[in-house]
Amino acid sequence: MTNAPEEPDGHHEPGAGGSAPDAPDALDAPDTPEPAKAPAVTDHGGGVWSIPVPIPDNPLGHTLVHLIDTDAGPVLVDTGWDDPDSWQSLVDGLAACGTDVQALHGVLITHHHPDHHGLSARVREESGAWIAMHPADTDVVRRTRSTGPEDWLRHLTGKLAAAGAPESHTAPLHRALTDGSVRTLPGSTAAVPDLDIEPGALLPLPGRRLRAVWTPGHTPGHVCLHLEEQHPEAGRRGLGRLFSGDHLLPGITPHIGLYEIPGSPETADPLGDYLDSLDRIARLRPAQVLPAHQHPFDDAPARAAELRAHHEQRLLELLALLTGRERTLWELTEALSWNRPWARIPFGSRNIAVAEAEAHLRHLLVRGRAEPVHGSTPATYRAA
């Protein structure tokens, strides 16, 4: 585990257990590495394949979309980013697996982010396949579709101002609102799912035994999918295989921020949800984890323990900053340890860093280890 938490990107925080191929902001960071080269389509045995689907202009490189053979036809786990090249990679990958889009029976979405749910609408249009998602993330999809990008930007600008961000940081956001240059958000036209994924339920995959495991934290409705079947490789210890989405990755810490839904309750504790979800997955002890990024790995309990230790260390660092001094959220974010000096962190990544710090601060507040200073504007906090 790295000594200092890394700088986050929009979906994941590199580090916490090894070097990571992703960097915070692919467009702004001058020393961003080249995207990881996509692997070939992989046959994992037992009627399971992975298809790398590119994420444009993102150092993560690709999403690993998984294909599961069932008695009713093939089913996808996630679909990938909505982009012509990504679509073609999915089509070519399905062909390499011996099938095509039209043959798809269903789509299981681990969470609503556009690198996982982006192509779902086109898959459904081409195949008639159903789409299933946890209802908490379906709610985010509906809100995103019905909320204009200007409203989301106003929400972000208001949160940054409340955090104590300087005018020099919020000014570009205000300019975008006044000159009409707000960009459409990824996911603003994402497909509304047909079916709800119910936690603990066996999913409708004839001939397979796939169980939904609710793992909130990265998003409110993130799910892992546990294939409760003997691993095709003899001698492996553990029960079956786990499609982990972004919840459990071999060398990247998933981004944990507040659930960014305007009007969401201030009692929400995404980090607490994530830590509980790590424990839930560790108890499953799958023989192998098939994540949505990087590569398959073993020993889910050990990786879960690494991630928990990473966040516990982050909480201790934050608590130390709050001891003996009142600070705004922005001041806390500036003072936290990142993988480069604050002055070198790009604009967009600073917003994500604030979200990371806010989720950790919220966890301390919920646990009674920190408290707001009443009457302070912008809000300041201190150790309880």
Name the shape in a single word. Answer: globular
Order of helices and strands: EEEEEHEHHEHHHEEEEEHEHEHHEE
**Counted beta strands:** 16
In percent, how much strand structure appears in the residues? 15-25%
Radius of gyration: 21 Å
Given as residue ranges, the uncertain stretches (5+ residues, pLDDT < 50) are 1-34
What is the number of domains? Answer: 3
What's the level 1 CATH class of the largest domain? Alpha Beta
Helix content: 25-40%
| Mean pLDDT over the residues | 89
- How many strands, which pairing sense, and closed or not: the largest β-sheet? 7 strands, mixed
Count of helical stretches: 10
Please name the fourth-level CATH homologous superfamily of the largest domain.
Ribonuclease Z/Hydroxyacylglutathione hydrolase-like
Strand order of the largest sheet: 2-3-4-5-6-7-8
Q: What is the CATH fold-level name of the largest domain?
A: Metallo-beta-lactamase, Chain A
Q: Which structural category fits the helices and strands?
A: alpha/beta
Head-to-tail CA distance between termini: 29 Å
